Amino acid sequence: MSAPISTKLDHCVAKVEEHLANTDETTANPVLVMLTGLPGTGKSNVARQLAEVLPFAIVESDQVRKILFPQCEYTGEESRWVHRTCHALMDKLLMRGVRVIYDATNLHERHRELVYRLADGRGVKLIVVKVVSPEAVASQRLRDRQGDVKDDDDVSDADVKVYRRMSRSVDPIRRNHVVVDTSRDLRPAITKLLRLMRS
What is the domain class of 2-198 according to CATH? Predict the structure, then answer.
Protein backbone atom coordinates (compact mmCIF):
# COMPACT_ATOMS: atom_id res chain seq x y z
CA MET A 1 0.00 0.00 0.00
CA SER A 2 2.77 2.47 0.93
CA ALA A 3 4.65 2.09 -2.38
CA PRO A 4 1.75 3.33 -4.57
CA ILE A 5 1.06 6.22 -2.14
CA SER A 6 4.76 7.17 -2.18
CA THR A 7 4.82 7.00 -6.00
CA LYS A 8 1.67 9.12 -6.24
CA LEU A 9 3.10 11.67 -3.81
CA ASP A 10 6.36 11.92 -5.77
CA HIS A 11 4.32 12.48 -8.93
CA CYS A 12 2.21 15.20 -7.25
CA VAL A 13 5.32 16.97 -5.91
CA ALA A 14 7.02 16.92 -9.32
CA LYS A 15 3.87 18.20 -11.03
CA VAL A 16 3.54 21.17 -8.67
CA GLU A 17 7.26 21.96 -8.66
CA GLU A 18 7.10 22.58 -12.43
CA HIS A 19 4.90 25.62 -11.73
CA LEU A 20 7.14 27.22 -9.08
CA ALA A 21 9.60 30.06 -9.55
CA ASN A 22 12.96 30.43 -7.76
CA THR A 23 13.46 26.70 -7.13
CA ASP A 24 17.06 26.95 -8.38
CA GLU A 25 17.90 29.85 -6.02
CA THR A 26 19.70 28.13 -3.15
CA THR A 27 21.46 29.28 0.00
CA ALA A 28 23.45 27.66 2.79
CA ASN A 29 20.85 28.91 5.29
CA PRO A 30 17.36 28.43 3.88
CA VAL A 31 14.38 29.79 5.76
CA LEU A 32 10.74 28.69 5.90
CA VAL A 33 8.12 31.41 6.22
CA MET A 34 4.71 30.05 7.21
CA LEU A 35 1.82 32.41 6.61
CA THR A 36 -1.38 31.97 8.56
CA GLY A 37 -4.61 33.90 8.29
CA LEU A 38 -8.21 33.90 7.15
CA PRO A 39 -9.14 34.17 3.46
CA GLY A 40 -8.95 37.72 2.12
CA THR A 41 -6.47 38.95 4.72
CA GLY A 42 -3.72 39.33 2.11
CA LYS A 43 -1.41 36.34 2.64
CA SER A 44 -0.60 35.96 -1.05
CA ASN A 45 0.21 39.67 -1.35
CA VAL A 46 2.67 39.38 1.55
CA ALA A 47 4.23 36.31 -0.11
CA ARG A 48 4.62 38.07 -3.46
CA GLN A 49 6.14 41.19 -1.90
CA LEU A 50 8.67 39.13 0.05
CA ALA A 51 9.60 37.17 -3.08
CA GLU A 52 10.16 40.43 -4.99
CA VAL A 53 12.90 41.36 -2.52
CA LEU A 54 14.47 37.94 -1.89
CA PRO A 55 14.13 34.78 -4.02
CA PHE A 56 11.54 32.46 -2.47
CA ALA A 57 9.67 29.48 -3.82
CA ILE A 58 6.03 30.13 -2.87
CA VAL A 59 4.11 26.96 -2.04
CA GLU A 60 0.51 28.18 -2.14
CA SER A 61 -2.11 25.63 -1.11
CA ASP A 62 -4.79 27.12 -3.41
CA GLN A 63 -2.48 26.85 -6.41
CA VAL A 64 -1.45 23.31 -5.45
CA ARG A 65 -5.13 22.33 -5.26
CA LYS A 66 -5.85 23.74 -8.74
CA ILE A 67 -2.83 21.94 -10.21
CA LEU A 68 -3.69 18.57 -8.65
CA PHE A 69 -7.48 18.88 -8.90
CA PRO A 70 -8.50 21.16 -11.80
CA GLN A 71 -12.16 20.48 -10.92
CA CYS A 72 -11.89 21.20 -7.18
CA GLU A 73 -14.48 19.58 -4.91
CA TYR A 74 -12.90 20.55 -1.54
CA THR A 75 -13.42 17.08 -0.07
CA GLY A 76 -11.45 15.86 2.94
CA GLU A 77 -9.46 13.44 0.78
CA GLU A 78 -8.64 16.19 -1.72
CA SER A 79 -7.46 18.50 1.07
CA ARG A 80 -5.30 15.74 2.58
CA TRP A 81 -3.51 15.27 -0.74
CA VAL A 82 -3.06 19.02 -1.17
CA HIS A 83 -1.40 19.45 2.23
CA ARG A 84 0.56 16.20 2.00
CA THR A 85 1.95 17.45 -1.33
CA CYS A 86 2.72 20.91 0.10
CA HIS A 87 4.66 19.43 3.03
CA ALA A 88 6.61 16.96 0.88
CA LEU A 89 7.46 19.69 -1.63
CA MET A 90 8.60 22.10 1.09
CA ASP A 91 10.77 19.40 2.61
CA LYS A 92 12.37 18.67 -0.77
CA LEU A 93 13.04 22.36 -1.46
CA LEU A 94 14.46 23.09 2.01
CA MET A 95 16.74 20.06 1.75
CA ARG A 96 18.13 21.62 -1.46
CA GLY A 97 18.67 24.98 0.26
CA VAL A 98 15.72 26.82 -1.31
CA ARG A 99 13.96 29.54 0.69
CA VAL A 100 10.26 28.69 1.00
CA ILE A 101 7.07 30.58 1.78
CA TYR A 102 4.10 28.40 2.74
CA ASP A 103 0.95 30.32 1.81
CA ALA A 104 -2.10 28.62 3.35
CA THR A 105 -4.68 29.51 5.97
CA ASN A 106 -2.92 27.31 8.61
CA LEU A 107 -5.62 28.20 11.14
CA HIS A 108 -5.33 25.10 13.34
CA GLU A 109 -2.37 24.43 15.60
CA ARG A 110 -2.36 20.70 14.77
CA HIS A 111 -1.68 21.64 11.13
CA ARG A 112 0.94 24.21 12.08
CA GLU A 113 2.69 21.63 14.25
CA LEU A 114 3.43 19.57 11.13
CA VAL A 115 5.24 22.59 9.70
CA TYR A 116 7.07 23.23 12.99
CA ARG A 117 8.34 19.64 12.89
CA LEU A 118 9.33 19.95 9.24
CA ALA A 119 11.43 23.07 9.92
CA ASP A 120 12.92 21.63 13.13
CA GLY A 121 13.74 18.37 11.36
CA ARG A 122 15.61 20.21 8.61
CA GLY A 123 17.26 22.59 11.07
CA VAL A 124 16.01 25.66 9.21
CA LYS A 125 14.81 28.95 10.60
CA LEU A 126 11.01 29.12 10.77
CA ILE A 127 9.24 32.47 10.74
CA VAL A 128 5.51 32.33 11.47
CA VAL A 129 3.54 35.28 10.12
CA LYS A 130 -0.04 35.91 11.18
CA VAL A 131 -1.62 37.97 8.40
CA VAL A 132 -4.61 40.07 9.45
CA SER A 133 -6.84 42.82 8.14
CA PRO A 134 -10.09 44.37 9.36
CA GLU A 135 -13.09 42.16 8.56
CA ALA A 136 -14.60 44.86 6.34
CA VAL A 137 -11.42 45.00 4.23
CA ALA A 138 -11.14 41.21 3.94
CA SER A 139 -14.83 40.91 3.06
CA GLN A 140 -14.52 43.51 0.30
CA ARG A 141 -11.52 41.69 -1.15
CA LEU A 142 -13.47 38.44 -1.14
CA ARG A 143 -16.44 40.11 -2.85
CA ASP A 144 -14.08 41.55 -5.47
CA ARG A 145 -12.84 38.01 -6.20
CA GLN A 146 -16.34 37.04 -7.23
CA GLY A 147 -16.71 40.08 -9.49
CA ASP A 148 -14.75 41.91 -12.17
CA VAL A 149 -11.92 43.08 -9.89
CA LYS A 150 -10.32 39.63 -9.59
CA ASP A 151 -6.53 39.61 -9.44
CA ASP A 152 -5.08 37.29 -12.11
CA ASP A 153 -2.61 35.94 -9.52
CA ASP A 154 -5.41 35.11 -7.08
CA VAL A 155 -6.48 31.47 -7.40
CA SER A 156 -8.53 31.18 -4.21
CA ASP A 157 -12.22 30.30 -4.40
CA ALA A 158 -12.98 31.43 -0.83
CA ASP A 159 -15.87 33.84 -0.37
CA VAL A 160 -17.37 35.76 2.57
CA LYS A 161 -19.31 32.69 3.75
CA VAL A 162 -16.08 30.67 3.88
CA TYR A 163 -14.38 33.54 5.76
CA ARG A 164 -17.13 33.63 8.40
CA ARG A 165 -17.19 29.86 8.82
CA MET A 166 -13.40 29.66 9.19
CA SER A 167 -13.27 32.63 11.58
CA ARG A 168 -15.23 30.62 14.16
CA SER A 169 -12.44 28.06 14.61
CA VAL A 170 -9.03 29.73 14.68
CA ASP A 171 -6.50 28.33 17.17
CA PRO A 172 -3.99 30.55 19.00
CA ILE A 173 -0.44 30.28 17.62
CA ARG A 174 1.79 28.67 20.24
CA ARG A 175 5.11 29.76 18.74
CA ASN A 176 6.62 33.21 18.46
CA HIS A 177 5.13 34.96 15.44
CA VAL A 178 4.92 38.27 13.66
CA VAL A 179 1.57 39.97 13.01
CA VAL A 180 1.22 41.79 9.69
CA ASP A 181 -1.83 43.99 9.03
CA THR A 182 -2.24 44.25 5.25
CA SER A 183 -4.62 47.20 5.50
CA ARG A 184 -1.51 49.28 6.29
CA ASP A 185 1.65 50.06 4.33
CA LEU A 186 3.42 46.72 4.00
CA ARG A 187 6.93 48.08 3.54
CA PRO A 188 7.85 48.26 7.27
CA ALA A 189 6.54 44.72 7.80
CA ILE A 190 8.51 43.36 4.83
CA THR A 191 11.66 45.09 6.14
CA LYS A 192 11.07 43.57 9.61
CA LEU A 193 10.62 40.06 8.16
CA LEU A 194 13.79 40.35 6.09
CA ARG A 195 15.68 41.49 9.18
CA LEU A 196 14.39 38.46 11.12
CA MET A 197 15.53 36.13 8.34
CA ARG A 198 19.03 37.56 8.37
CA SER A 199 19.46 37.73 12.14
Answer: alpha beta
